Amino acid sequence: MRTSAGTECKHYYEDFHRDHNTQECRLIKQNIESLAWYPSDCLKCPIPNILNANASSYLELKLTIKSKFLGMKRQAVVTASCIKHKKPIDDVFVGCSQCNQERPSLNLFWSALEQSEEPDND
Description:
Layout: E1 12-15, E2 22-25, H1 26-30, H2 47-53, E3 59-68, E4 73-82, E5 87-89, H3 97-101, H4 104-117
Antiparallel strand pairs: 1-2, 3-4, 4-5
């Protein structure tokens, strides 16, 4: 669904049909450690970019809104883990290193990329 910031996010939900006035982020709704969510939090949220870069079905994201600078600013903090290998993911845009090694087509892509980056010795 399109967020109030104009990006597509599968965790955002809104309903304004027939006197409903509902806007929510379902990732924040699952996280009790987070501050309350506001639609303006979608402006700086990295989740839509992460979902565009990494479509792994084993990716589990946790979004936490924290206060920053004496409560004047808000920050979206994302932690990710692989539910298949039960380990945290360092770079959410790349994904789980073990899952990436299990995909032969991805290995072909990386090897082709490395070959194209090698300098010619002519």
